[in-house]
Amino acid sequence: MTDEELARIDGRDGVGLAVHLELNSALLDGRPTDSRLTAGFNVNGTTTYAVVQNLAGVMDMIAVTLNVRSRPDGGDYIDVGLPSFVGFRQFGFRALAAQTDPLAPIAPSASYGQLLLNGTGAMTGHVYLWAQ
Length: 132
Known about the structure:
The protein has about 130 residues and is mostly beta strands. About 5% of the residues lie in helices and about 55% in strands. The protein has one domain (about 5-130). It is built from one helix and nine strands, in the order H-E-E-E-E-E-E-E-E-E. The relative contact order is 0.22.
């Protein structure tokens, strides 16, 4: 959409979002892969990398809402409604490490661990955002 088209939209009932996210689904099929998410930090001339290895899985999130509402004092705020359903299938990362070579193998003894989520959940509530 162009800015002009977007400006003509009137979202009186807000916006509802549903997300189906698949990351590196080759891992879910059992195919070998070595994907990495890295961030480098230079301290005293040495660059160290935070490495997240094989971030993958499936996440479903339904009914996240986004509304602009008016405050009693005359200002506006953004109302983000939390999702009523979240589901995960093998969602997470297989290793987390800090090392000077971002492409070096992560030894099991050097990994800070892994995070894998499986299951479903429901949330209720809202997050409100406004300017001061």
